[in-house]
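Exercise 7. Given the encoded structure of a 285-residue chain, write a plausible sequence.
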């Protein structure tokens, strides 16, 4: 069977921590790079795998971009090769973490540049990290799947299981009251088989568990846990609340950071048989 090109698979050997982040907006002056570096340093110490769900770049200050404003460009990017300067800067910033960064998906800021300027900035960044720094970074679509596979190598029968994450960068404004929960409910109704549904885009942060009735491998009725994760941003648009597009549209202060996700495989014994199950712990950065 031919595999989909939008399913990213990775294997783990035991308990594994992941750092889930989105909406970094790396090149924006309002990106909190100090906080981003702090979280990446923590991930390096934990040997966590870093997954990034869209809008790593901002890139709104290019020629002919109607969203551009001179106040929103970092002085080091005031060069003729604006897009290139941003990509090279990101390469240098991320190079110390190349051993743990495994995946970028596209957000609306990356797809906008691809449409306007016909260049894939994320693929260019991944190529630099992989060829110059020995990385193994993959690029996904605006939405897709991340499949974490575990095989019990100690058990001679080699039992295995997987943890399936449905990611989607996001759409709409989220809602000042609902915080994007309605979009998650829509995905929950239309997506089958996910253990987690993960979105970004709206710069809000929350996590919740929903449950569905299903059958285990022995046809017993169980309640399956499904995590819903909404990751925020590293772009502090509110600041002191004095002005700017974020303030003028009546948007509130937004959280910064992401989530840690611990995936913990274990053997589950039942009626003389055993199989592998996965426990999951989610907590904010």
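Solution.
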């Amino acid at each position: 069977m031919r595999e989909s090109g939008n399913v990213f698979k990775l294997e783990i050997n035991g308990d594994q921590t992941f750092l889930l982040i989105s909406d970094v907006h790396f090149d924006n002056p309002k990106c909190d790079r100090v906080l981003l570096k702090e979280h990446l340093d923590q991930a390096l110490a934990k040997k966590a795998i870093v997954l990034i769900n869209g809008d790593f770049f901002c890139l709104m200050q290019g020629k002919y971009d109607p969203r551009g404003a001179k106040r929103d460009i970092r002085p080091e990017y005031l060069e003729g090769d604006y897009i290139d300067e941003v990509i090279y800067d990101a390469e240098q910033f991320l190079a110390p973490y190349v051993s743990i960064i495994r995946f970028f998906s596209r957000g609306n800021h990356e797809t906008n540049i691809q449409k306007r300027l016909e260049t894939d900035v994320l693929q260019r960044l991944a190529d630099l990290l992989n060829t110059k720094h020995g990385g193994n970074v993959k690029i996904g679509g605006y939405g897709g799947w991340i499949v974490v596979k575990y095989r019990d190598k100690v058990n001679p029968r080699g039992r295995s299981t997987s943890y399936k994450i449905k990611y989607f960068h996001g759409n709409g404004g989220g809602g000042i009251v609902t915080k994007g929960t309605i979009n998650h409910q829509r995905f929950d109704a239309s997506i089958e088989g996910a253990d987690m549904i993960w979105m970004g885009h709206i710069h809000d942060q929350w996590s919740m568990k929903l449950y569905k009735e299903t059958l285990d491998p022995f046809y017993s009725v169980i309640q399956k846990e499904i995590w819903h994760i909404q990751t925020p941003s590293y772009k502090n648009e509110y600041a002191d609340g004095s002005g700017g597009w974020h303030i003028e549209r009546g948007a509130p202060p937004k959280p910064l950071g992401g989530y840690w996700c611990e995936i913990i495989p274990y053997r589950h014994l039942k009626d003389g048989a055993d199989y592998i199950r996965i426990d999951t712990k989610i907590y904010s950065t």
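Remark. The chain is about 20% helix and 30% strand. Students should compare their own answers with the one above.
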